[in-house]
Amino acid sequence: MRSATINAICEAFVNPELKDNLTRTSSWIRVAYMVLFAIVYNIAELVGLLVVLFQIGSTLITGKRNEFVSGFGRSLSRYIFQIWSYLTYSSEQRPFPFMVWPSSAPGPDLDSGRVNPSLPDQH
User: Is it the case that residue 5 has pLDDT exceeding 80?
Assistant: First the structure.
């Protein structure tokens, strides 16, 4: 049924390249993974919000950030970046669980704590 519908659409356009593109199984598998990772992104975004709220509470109560939660937030932000890279076709690598969970170790991208290192530190 699905194949017959796609074939009918392709014949209407009379474009063999379009037919090939629409009937390519790998493209549809990618779309299915993209839908899955879009759902996972929404969950990760909610978890990220909970990390932010917890860190605010921790800072207000103890006067300092929770290092464990900070590390988790760092790895979660890297995971969200991996998801976006996959969703925008910037990467063909499927994020976790198809690759290892991102590291929570500080790296060059996060060492300064600033998005733009050329801007003065606001601490």
Answer: no
